[in-house]
Amino acid sequence: MGFWHTGYLEFHDNAGLDFAYRPQRLIYHCQHCGQHFDSMDDLRRHRFQSHPYTCPLLFVRGIELGATPFRVTRSAQPSDFVVELCTIATFNGTPREPREIPKLLAEVSHDKVKVELGNDGPPAVFELVFQIADEMHLKGVEASFLQFANRKLLTVRALEVFIQECRAFNTADAYWGGICDYLYGVLAKERAPDSSLPYDEYRERFNRAADALLDYDRSLAHLVRSLVAFHFNHFEDAALFAPPGQLHMASMRFEAVLKGISWDEAGTPARKPSNAPEDMLTDHETLRILRWTQLPLTELAAEAENIAALVKCDVPEFDRLKLNVLLAEAYAASRDAVHARKTARELIGNAKTAGWAERLIARLAGEEQNT
Ligand SMILES: [Zn+2]
């Protein structure tokens, strides 16, 4: 799982996708502790001070490479590659000076490359798959996706038609492949009758999709990555990649509420209505969660029964966390302290929600004393 490691975001034309947007800022994540930094230098400084490992490292556009092959999908400059803690190197088996590696990597456009970096300790081996996508192919995938989304019907058959259309766009195959992986995941998660995947497979598909789309700097890729991050409750990352709208607002609100900001102060409802690509990519449970999360507390309170009914269903643990936060806030707002406390207690054991749950329970106790 590596999709939230970092994002070096730039704006590109988006082939008429109506959710084209400019991410707010460039951001670099530490994949070891999740902290964010505004520059690659700050990230690297933090990386060595806080996580002093001695293995050689290879970064691509701020992403620290691990054991999984990394797919490079946009043309790169030598400065996009950074080699650290390395005294000897090989490039596809040939010995090279470590300082030559970035330039050699930047010259590749369609190939698999193996880089071995060494120092006094055991060597580190990195695999990179270069497939620089043709702009026309990327736009072709997006145009096909837009048509697919406008038909507003997600079935295995409809997805196969989309795949058939995309086959011509071979330099962008990981792009449409990532989108399809994600949508097969949605079908499994929704237990679609024509899906042959087991239910639990959706997690693997979501992660695979986010990994495949890591280096695509396109709105559609950002949207999928944001939905995956939101599903796995990485709200800060979800907010970074989400276009303006319900998903962005919900990510911001969850992030803020869990940090201690009150529900109503933590966001105002998204004014922009959702759009066809976003609807097509959002599974039923997430859609309901997004809609509830837009509501001010007074309206959320009126939804307590509906939220409770969904919590009782067989929903993934990640969705259950969001639903229980919604439910506890709804109960608290409707002055049902008993149920609010009971719901909040279920989230005390989770590091992400413990602080919020304790604050809510303390607030309820305070309110009871005052009445
Ligand atoms: Zn860190």
What descriptive keywords fit this protein?
371 residues, alpha+beta, 3 domains, three-stranded antiparallel sheet, 16 helices, 10 strands, globular, disordered N terminus, binds zinc ion
Describe the fold and architecture.
- The protein is α+β, with helices and mostly antiparallel strands.
- The protein folds into three domains: 28-131, no CATH class; 135-251; 295-369.
- The protein has helices spanning 40-50, 101-106, 135-150, 156-166, 173-189, 201-212, 219-231, 235-241, 246-258, 276-281, 284-294, 297-301, 304-312, 317-333, 337-345, 354-369; strands at 28-29, 36-37, 57-60, 63-64, 70-72, 81-84, 88-91, 94-96, 110-118, 124-131.
- The strands form three sheets. Strands 5-10-9-7-8 form a five-stranded mixed sheet.
- A hairpin with a 6-residue loop joins strand 1 and strand 2 (36-37).
- The longest helix is centred in the middle third of the chain and has 17 residues, at 173-189.
- The chain is globular.
- Zinc ion binds next to helix 1.
